[in-house]
Amino acid sequence: MRHAASSESSVLITGESGTGKELVARATIPTASGPGRSFVTVNCGAIPDGSSSRSFFGHVKGAFTGAVAEKRGLVEEADRGTLFLDEIGEIAPQLQVKLLRILQEGEFTRIGDTQPSG
């Protein structure tokens, strides 16, 4: 845990349900995220398939019916802090690919936007 805490790298924590994965993730906060940086927990199994991309990446005004203002997604809410994705295996494979892009390239695109953010 000390090695992960002092790293800027992404970390995969595995284990059965109830084994304390979130506790391990939170234990890295003082060094990895630093003061004032957020820790955003997402239960991936609880996000409906139809809104998962919007939840993670946000959207721009006018991207779809009802998008009356720009909205930040969970990725931006974490903003250089920690984004803890609990039960990531529960989300659709196409969304997992988009999340992989964030890990590899450090960028994502809001729904309705033409320019990547990151």
Describe the structure.
The protein is an alpha+beta fold. The protein has helices at 2-5, 21-27, 29-32, 52-57, 74-78, 93-105, and strands spanning 39-43, 82-86. It has a two-stranded parallel sheet with strand order 1-2. The longest helix has 13 residues, at 93-105. The protein starts with a helix and ends in a 13-residue tail after the last helix. The mean pLDDT is 85.
What is the topology?
Blueprint: H1 2-5, H2 21-27, H3 29-32, E1 39-43, H4 52-57, H5 74-78, E2 82-86, H6 93-105
Parallel strand pairs: 1-2
Which stretches are poorly predicted, pLDDT < 50 over at least 5 residues? Answer: none
The ordered string of helix (H) and strand (E) elements is: HHHEHHEH
> Mean pLDDT, nearest integer?
85
Determine the CATH topology.
Answer: Rossmann fold
Mass-distribution shape: globular
Give the amount of beta strand, in percent.
5-15%
Helical stretch count?
Answer: 6
Oligomer: single chain
User: How many β strands by DSSP?
Assistant: 2
Q: What would CATH call the class?
A: Alpha Beta
Largest sheet: 2 strands, parallel
| Helical/strand content category | alpha+beta
As a percent range, the share of helical residues equals 25-40%
